[in-house]
UniProtKB/TrEMBL annotation:
Pfam families: AAA_33, PNK3P. GO terms for biological process: DNA repair. GO terms for molecular function: ATP-dependent polydeoxyribonucleotide 5'-hydroxyl-kinase activity; double-stranded DNA binding; polynucleotide 3'-phosphatase activity. Residues 1-27 are annotated as: Disordered. InterPro entries: HAD-like_sf, HAD-SF_hydro_IIIA, HAD_sf, P-loop_NTPase, PNK3P, Polynucleotide_phosphatase. This is Bifunctional polynucleotide phosphatase/kinase. It comes from Calicophoron daubneyi (Rumen fluke).
Amino acid sequence: MPPKRAQAKTNNNGGPPAKKPMQQTKLTPSIGGNWEVTDSLLIYTPPDAKPSSKILGLDMDGTIITTKSGKVFAQDTNDWKLLNDQVISKLKQYQSKGFKIVIMSNQSGIDKGHVTVAAFQTKVENILQQLGLPIQGYFSVKSDRNRKPMIGMWEVLEKEGNGGVAVDRSQSIYCGDAAGRPAEGSRKKDFSCGDRLFALNLGVPFRTPEQLWLERADAGPYSLPNFDPKAALNAKQPQLPTLTPPKKQEVILMVGYPASGKSYFCKTKLAPLGYTIVSRDVLNTWQKCVNATKDALRKGESVAVDNTNMDAESRGRYVEAAKAAGCPIRCFVMKTTVENARHNERFRVLTHEDHEPISQMVFNMLKSKYQEPTMKEGFSEIVEIPFVVDKQCQDLSLYCMHLLEK
């Protein structure tokens, strides 16, 4: 089902959320330039930065630098070295071709308290000093629209950080090591596909570090997430089953992942037909949901149970309640895949201030717990509800982007 229509968190012009400056600091005199620290971004601009229609965007860790220690994560702010001997010479080549060089990197460790802003700034200053080039930096510190693969920080660059010069995305490049590649030789499997998806969301040509620095012609094999939001939008939309007001009292039991569209379906399709909606999101426990179902049935009402109901045990409680009331129970199964549901959940968090994120671990747990409903459980009918993209939903352009890194 479609994502809920919600008031998207945007600025007054409909763009990405406005930055909220918190402080301004200066870099050390040996480098110069300005740091802008906002609620969501750290932005560095060198004094000699020149605007350009062509941007060479670069991830930082695993692309420009790697750890001296050989460990996956830096042990301290000094645990880094340039990725290879070609980095500086290649950057000079791109600069000579008119590219503006910009680092665009997710740095969630700052928000998590693993590193301070001051320590991170010092690390970046030291890297830029070794590179010796006028390089701008955008660093996302929170899980919002500025975090790759979402394109918020690139949009801030285009609107505020390029001296009024329009960026030609088709002539720009983004390079990063999170490219969805399997292990190859000594290189481990990429931890995500976030950099490739960032470029894909932007419509910017993508390069791996091997392609950029070593001029490798082929990026090698890679895989993208199973759910493609643009493909879902452009696909022929399936028809929802025809629903009519119940001729006699019944229970409809919803089954599906969080953010699969159960609540939207209940609100827009079942509630208008007179069904009483029972939801654990409202009542908090399954015990209260079962009691609420029994109370509604005693009043002669038809009920729609808006919970995940992933296994036969959880569904059986409502089958027994319907049986005790002498009414049939139908099972409506949301056919939204787990990947699609995770995308919907991410979109919901980004556009609903009152929704807390649901971790991938929870989705994995529900997937492992899932048991396909069968008629043997006591249902009078099992109805499959296909996922349908709501083309009228607010911020459809955001929904059609890849929102998850893998």
